[in-house]
Amino acid sequence: MSPPLPDLPLLELRDLRAGYAAGPILHGVSFSLAAGRIATLLGGNGAGKSTLLRAVYGANRHYGGAVLFEGRDITALSPPRRLALGIGFVPQGRCNFAAMTVAENLLMGGYTLKRTEREAAIAAMLERFPVLARKAGEAAGNLSGGEQQVLEMAMVLITGPRLLLLDEPSLGLSPRMQAEVFATVAGLARESGVAVLMVEQNLRGALAISDTAIVLEMGRKFLEGPAAEVAVDPRIRHAYLGGNVTAADAA
Ligand SMILES: Nc1ncnc2c1ncn2[C@@H]1O[C@H](COP(=O)(O)OP(=O)(O)OP(=O)(O)O)[C@@H](O)[C@H]1O
């Protein structure tokens, strides 16, 4: 597929309203994300962060507004059609096949690829992630939490997405493993031009690798800005980063 036009955002949300059968959770959210950029979604419990990721993947009830990918309105497309266009989603929690080997899991991730492409795609993932190559023949369930998270990203990356949606990739990992996962995500954006939209509980770690931060409150965008600025915004530090607001912050 051709690369996105430089003046077009890869992903654009226009006044998106989406939710579940009981009603909308997102009440008109707009923002855009360019190729190779990382954006973190912040917000309290129930603000609609995971719902937003699912809505970009097409896994929610749509109530209004639009999702554009490379300038094309994809609002009516199903998740498989969005995956085929280049949108990959790694949901929260463990989602590999624990009893299958790492290589078999990669094969499962690449099931939408043409049969002739699968072997090369698996080899490319094993080359990209040496930790997976070392354990290619081991059952996924025997990998560490951090290794499983890398495997789950690789199971989606094998399809060659240009936008990766990550729901809490560092959840339940040790600080060292969290750092490894964040380094992997940063590398994807920097080296492969993949755009990443991420929900994270480790906000310091996530913001450190993000270009942009988008704050949701009760299904609405409360704030959007460069991650480095949002990270020191007194309101954000107070509400989400557990930091005390100092005179220097407020100045
Ligand atoms: N499958 C569902 N059906 C109906 N309502 C849901 C469903 N999943 C989530 N919700 C509701 O949508 C709202 C937003 O949930 P969501 O998971 O998007 O929030 P969040 O910002 O990701 O929160 P958290 O940080 O707690 O995961 C909540 O009120 C939740 O109860």
Automatic annotation (TrEMBL):
**Record carries keyword Zinc:** no
**Keyword entries, A-Z:** Amino-acid transport, ATP-binding, Nucleotide-binding, Transport
Instruction: Extract the Pfam families matched here.
Output: ABC_tran
InterPro entries xrefs: AAA+_ATPase, ABC_transporter-like_ATP-bd, ABC_transporter-like_CS, BCAA_Transport_ATP-bd_LivF, P-loop_NTPase
Tell whether Cytoplasm is among the UniProt keywords.
Answer: no
**Residues of the ABC transporter domain:** 11-243
State a single Gene Ontology molecular function. ATP hydrolysis activity
One GO BP annotation is: L-amino acid transport
Q: Which family does it belong to?
A: Belongs to the ABC transporter superfamily.
**Official protein name in the record:** ABC transporter ATP-binding protein
- Organism name: Roseomonas acroporae
